[in-house]
């Protein structure tokens, strides 16, 4: 039931009319309260009449307020002041209802600093307009709405496209280090390619992101998908050439094919980064709905699981192929899969846009869709990129959850005690069966999938901050055991080597738990207006950490130096756990305010 109360009173000056209003509304999920505001321009005068009337289909409302009408008269030539005074009626506790205020500033036509809102655009006509009737939802209905995506069919097409593209990408992330490691007895080639790839992300990532803002979503995505596939095919051709044309290991890094491989690898990773950001930070938000938090959280979790499942499938598939066929045949099969996937991804992206009624065609910025001649010049792009990096570093250092973010960055110094190019090269040179290497990478990804479920339980029982600390401590403890096993000198035997790998697999459970919980910590602590800037800066710093470690790996490229690299990786993980726990036991006032909902506080 709704009750509209209009309180009008006149000041001492007749040219001023003041009124205030409020709506007292009794909560009824099934009822609606249409409110109609009409503006009438009186003929032959300088005055305007405004009337407000309310109607309801509810009989209990209509019989009490039949023919309820309130009119107010105000002059166009005088100042009008509105006093937000609400007249309250005495009512019993059982009739206590929330008060909804009408903002009288809507009718303000005396603003001198800005152009006044003129609702009376023509004389001698009545302009009658209605506010949209709002359905009052129960709490359960609101939760259901929040959990329902805005475009569910389009989201399924997005998931399918994500799976198709990620399978090929994860397969290639496992394939190229394994194939290159067979060409050289050390970790040097893999470390060099990885070094320049991360360096390209650190330097070019912000620029690529800014450039994407100048293009429509769907054409930009299709173009980047084609560029990524072309870079992958070029890399495949170079590695196949290296396997078919004999060359000495010493001169390998100076070969033209290797230089092309480095360049193609950098382009492939930049394209993959841009595609991932577009899908995870932009597309999924539009399709799930920014005002539907549960649906958005579920969509984010599904995309994360798809990525990890693709890592399992890609690594396991190529590992099995490499154990049965020669590297050249496996690379040709991978190239065929890349070619076949591109049209599938493009078709699914088009389908996703169509099923969402073209929501992805909407402009994301005033610059979107401009012609190339409107784009910034090359010199301006460099200056823009440098300014973005500088400003990002300043904001990054001032964020209230800096220790949690630094702990996240420190984990990226771990480049050998984790599935990746260097670990794949090390295990390949140890003579381990490729199917076991692929299974190792797949199990690590499976731990990531399990962590997405376990982290929710940890947050419920320990709170968000202690859950993050638990993940880091768990990872550091298992990696300490793994390094002890390595330095025991027993990795020459099969059983200790498998135990060493199992410890690393289990440590990924803690790593990915912190990855999930840490993201929520950063989302809570970073202001929404700076989330993108600080987030991209964090990715750049993480890439810089990997660049530094890969640079050390280039210097200590012999497989005998793997233990030294393992100690550095372990130190970074232990340092991350120490930094986060120290921040946890010595909370600041800002931390207490941000995480006041946490059981610890």
UniProtKB/TrEMBL annotation:
Species for this entry: Aquilegia coerulea (Rocky mountain columbine)
Role this protein plays: May be involved in iron transport and iron homeostasis.
Keywords: Ion transport, Membrane, Transmembrane, Transmembrane helix, Transport
Topology of the protein relative to the lipid bilayer: Multi-pass membrane protein
Residue stretches spanning the membrane: 187-208, 254-278, 299-321, 333-352, 406-427, 439-459, 471-489, 495-512, 533-556, 562-585
Lineage: Eukaryota, Viridiplantae, Streptophyta, Embryophyta, Tracheophyta
UniProt keyword rRNA processing, yes or no: no
Subcellular localization, as worded in the UniProt entry: Membrane
A Gene Ontology molecular function term of the record: iron ion transmembrane transporter activity
Protein name: Solute carrier family 40 member
UniProt GO cellular component terms: membrane
């Amino acid at each position: 039931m709704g009750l509209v109360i209009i309180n009008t009173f006149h000041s001492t000056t007749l040219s001023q009319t003041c009124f205030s209003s409020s709506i007292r509304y009794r909560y009824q999920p099934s009822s609606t309260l249409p409110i109609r505001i009409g503006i009438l321009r009186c003929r032959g005068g300088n005055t305007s009449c405004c009337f407000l009337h309310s109607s309801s289909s509810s009989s209990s409302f209509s019989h009490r307020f039949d023919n309820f009408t309130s009119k107010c008269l105000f002059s166009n030539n005088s100042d009008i002041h509105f006093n937000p005074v609400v007249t309250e009626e005495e009512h019993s506790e059982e009739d206590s209802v929330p008060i909804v205020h009408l903002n009288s500033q809507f009718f303000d036509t005396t603003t001198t600093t800005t152009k006044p809102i003129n609702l009376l655009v023509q004389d001698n006509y009545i302009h009658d307009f209605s506010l949209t009737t709002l359905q009052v939802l129960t709490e359960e209905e609101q939760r259901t709405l929040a959990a329902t995506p805005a475009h569910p069919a389009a989201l399924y097409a997005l998931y399918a496209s994500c799976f198709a593209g990620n399978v090929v990408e994860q397969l290639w992330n496992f394939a190229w280090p394994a194939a290159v490691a067979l060409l050289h007895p050390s970790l040097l080639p893999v470390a060099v390619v990885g070094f320049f790839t991360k360096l390209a992300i650190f330097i070019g990532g912000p620029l690529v992101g800014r450039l994407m803002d100048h293009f429509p979503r769907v054409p930009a995505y299709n173009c980047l998908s084609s560029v990524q596939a072309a870079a992958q095919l070029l890399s495949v051709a170079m590695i196949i050439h290296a396997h078919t044309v004999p060359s000495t290991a010493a001169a390998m890094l100076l070969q033209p094919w290797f230089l092309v491989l480095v360049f193609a690898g950098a382009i492939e990773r930049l394209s993959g980064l841009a595609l991932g950001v577009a899908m995870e930070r932009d597309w999924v938000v539009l399709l799930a709905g920014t005002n539907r938090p549960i649906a958005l959280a579920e969509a984010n979790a599904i995309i994360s699981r798809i990525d990890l499942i693709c890592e399992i499938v890609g690594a396991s598939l190529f590992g099995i192929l490499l154990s049965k066929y020669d590297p050249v045949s496996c690379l040709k099969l991978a190239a065929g899969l890349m070619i076949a996937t591109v049209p599938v991804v493009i078709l699914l992206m088009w389908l996703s846009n169509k099923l969402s009624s073209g929501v992805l065609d909407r402009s994301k910025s005033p610059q979107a869709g401009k012609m190339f001649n409107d784009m910034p010049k090359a010199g301006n792009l460099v200056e823009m990129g440098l300014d973005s990096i500088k400003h990002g570093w300043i904001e990054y250092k001032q964020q209230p959850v800096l220790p949690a973010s630094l702990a996240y960055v420190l984990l990226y110094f771990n480049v050998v005690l984790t599935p990746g190019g260097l670990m794949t090269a090390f295990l390949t040179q140890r003579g381990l069966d490729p199917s076991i290497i692929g299974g190792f990478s797949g199990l690590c990804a499976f731990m990531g999938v399990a962590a997405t479920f376990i982290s929710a339980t940890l947050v419920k029982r320990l709170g968000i901050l202690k859950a993050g600390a638990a993940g880091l401590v768990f990872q550091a403890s298992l990696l300490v055991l793994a390094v002890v096993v390595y330095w025991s000198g027993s990795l020459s035997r099969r059983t200790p080597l498998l135990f060493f790998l199992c410890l690393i697999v289990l440590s990924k459970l803690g790593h990915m738990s912190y990855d999930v919980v840490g993201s929520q910590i950063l989302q809570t602590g970073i202001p929404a207006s700076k989330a993108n800037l600080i987030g991209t800066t964090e990715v750049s710093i993480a890439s810089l950490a990997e660049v530094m470690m890969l640079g050390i790996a280039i210097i200590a490229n012999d497989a005998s130096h793997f233990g030294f690299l393992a100690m550095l990786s372990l130190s970074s993980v232990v340092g991350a756990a120490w930094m986060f726990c120290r921040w946890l036991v010595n909370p600041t006032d800002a931390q207490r305010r941000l995480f006041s909902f946490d059981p610890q506080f």
